[in-house]
Amino acid sequence: MIGVRLAEDLVNLQATGPWEAGAVTEALRRTPIRFDRLDDATLGDLHAWARRLRGVFAADDVEQRAQRINALLAHGVQLVQLATHDGLPPHLHFAGQESSLVQRVRAMTAGGIAIFAVEAEAGRMGVCARPGCLRVFADTSKNGRRAYCSATCGNSHAVQRYRERQAYRASRSAPHS
Ligand SMILES: [Zn+2]
Ligand SMILES: [Zn+2]
């Protein structure tokens, strides 16, 4: 789940910003990826990759999502290896430890999204349903019916729709002049 979570984090950071070393470092620190510091070239490459990752979440249907994931896999996967290290549960590596940070991030996110897509039958991913929110989500909930990036967005969209209904009713019951 680490790979798809990192993909989600990078896409959301790209959507809401700021895309700078501190914020990107924070996202990468939530993973076991090892790295020193982010230079401008690396930040630029990761930004471009985050935009490509967004396309997977924003896909219209399963076919389009599969095509986009395959394009990422072609670009991101350098090897496939079952790894056991640092007390972590067995997991797949898609790049060697000696690869550049950008290559390892591409590998982890492309591979992670592909594994998630298999488990979720290429569903359970999307862009937040609240109008104006650009964030995306990978739905790991039990019922698999998530539509929002967060509970906050779900609640504020519900309030917004309630207010719209109230306004509509008020306008219908207003006396005609
Ligand atoms: Zn590992
Ligand atoms: Zn949202």
Descriptive overview:
- This protein is mainly alpha-helical.
- The protein has one domain (2-173): Jann2411-like fold.
- It is built from 6 helices and 4 strands; from the N terminus they run ααααββαββα.
- The strands form 2 sheets. A two-stranded antiparallel sheet has the order 1-2. A two-stranded antiparallel ribbon has the order 3-4.
- Strand 3 (125-127) and strand 4 (136-138) form a beta hairpin.
- The longest helix has 23 residues, at 151-173.
- The termini are far apart.
- The structure holds zinc ion (2 copies).
- The site of one zinc ion has 8 residues, from loops.
Topology:
Blueprint: H1 2-16, H2 21-29, H3 40-57, H4 62-76, E1 81-83, E2 91-93, H5 101-119, E3 125-127, E4 136-138, H6 151-173
Antiparallel strand pairs: 1-2, 3-4
Helix pairs in contact: 1-2, 1-3, 1-5, 3-4, 3-5, 4-5
The chain binds zinc ion (2 copies).
The site of one zinc ion (ZN) has 8 residues, from loops.
Give the tags.
177 residues, mainly alpha, Jann2411-like fold, two-stranded antiparallel ribbon, 7% strand, elongated, binds zinc ion
SSE series? HHHHEEHEEH
CATH architecture group name = Orthogonal Bundle
Bound molecules: zinc ion
The coarse silhouette is elongated
| CATH superfamily label | Jann2411-like domain
Between the first and last Cα atoms, what is the distance in angstroms? Answer: 61 Å
User: What's the total helix number?
Assistant: 6
Strand numbers in spatial order across the main sheet: 1-2
The CATH topology is what?
Jann2411-like fold
Helical amount: 55-70%
Report the C-alpha radius of gyration, rounded. Answer: 20 Å
Low-pLDDT ranges:
none
Strand percentage lies at 5-15%
User: For the report, how would you describe the main beta sheet?
Assistant: 2 strands, antiparallel
